User: What shape does this take?
Amino acid sequence: MTLTKATDVLAQLDLSPAEEADPFYLQVGPITLKVLSPEPLRGALVEYFAEALGDGAAQLTVKLLPGQMLGVAPKWVEWAREPGKAGRKDAIFDLNDARLIHKVRTGVTFLQSQTEVLAFGPLMDNVSTVINFINTQVLNICQRGGWQICHAAAVTNGIRTLAIAGLSGGGKSTSILRMMDLEGTRFVTNDRLMVRGGSPVEALGIPKHPRINPGTIVGNPRLHGMLSPARHTELREMAPEALWTLEEKYDLIIEDVYGPNRVQYAAPLTDFWVLNWSRQSNAPTRVTEVALADRPDLLGAIMKSPGPFYQFPDGQFLRNGIAPIPAAYLEALQGVRVKEVSGGIDFDALAEQGRVLFNG
Assistant: This one.
């Protein structure tokens, strides 16, 4: 069967398992999503999104169809990854009125259109992929409303909000969790931050728990309970360079580690730090105010492509290989104090700068 429009895809799928399921709702700042999923996937998602459960009129409905597949796969086109990223991750197939997106490694497929948003395939084996897809819909709605997507983590005390960006593996998760050790701070987001200009500038996180590597856990006594004593000992004996680069993801549940009421997705954005430090430097860690318009290198660490899922208000999709627009970020971040973190990597020194910021 030739696929030319969304209805051709829907004709090959059985929507009833989702449409007959008990819905649940996510509330993220001004965004409300309705999610339709059969069990046991529904239960896993409700448990994961516990901090963001809400109700009310939803702007969008997400339907999940575990185990279903298309009869014949389309001719997928590889989606170009951002500079510095290797390996195949996403592939797309554009229809007249929709886009199919396929996760190459997992086999999960998504249909994105103005009327239907759904995921199908081996969803129970890839719950984290489903979580990312749901969060992507929050990002899409925001971007259609004039927000910019940043590759950043953030915390807030309700008055000041600090976002931290940096290249992948640069330590932003470790840095932001050290700020969570400060009294009165609340978690906003770990990897994707929406920003919209105004007075004040608005920040919005997404309901995704931090996925952290062992180096972050070993370096923070509060997190040591996430590892078995034996594994903790093994990691402590590793060379620092090997520990820093070790990819072994753990989900950090904020409430379990930091207690209740430590999450706040929407906040006024006041400060933005960009990590430009180095493990090879012996210089002291410095946090210096900069004019972001004069530092395209730092702006590049903040900007994030919407990716293959993004559909513009007129129904058109983001084209392959299109980069974010710097001017839109500079406008959105007007009024936010931006600082560069340089010198050697010293999380204790950075945490002390955070203490000054939030207690000032």
Remarks:
- The chain has a mean pLDDT of 93.
- The chain has two domains: 6-144, 148-210+252-359.
- The first strand starts at residue 24 and ends at 28.
- The radius of gyration is 21 Å.
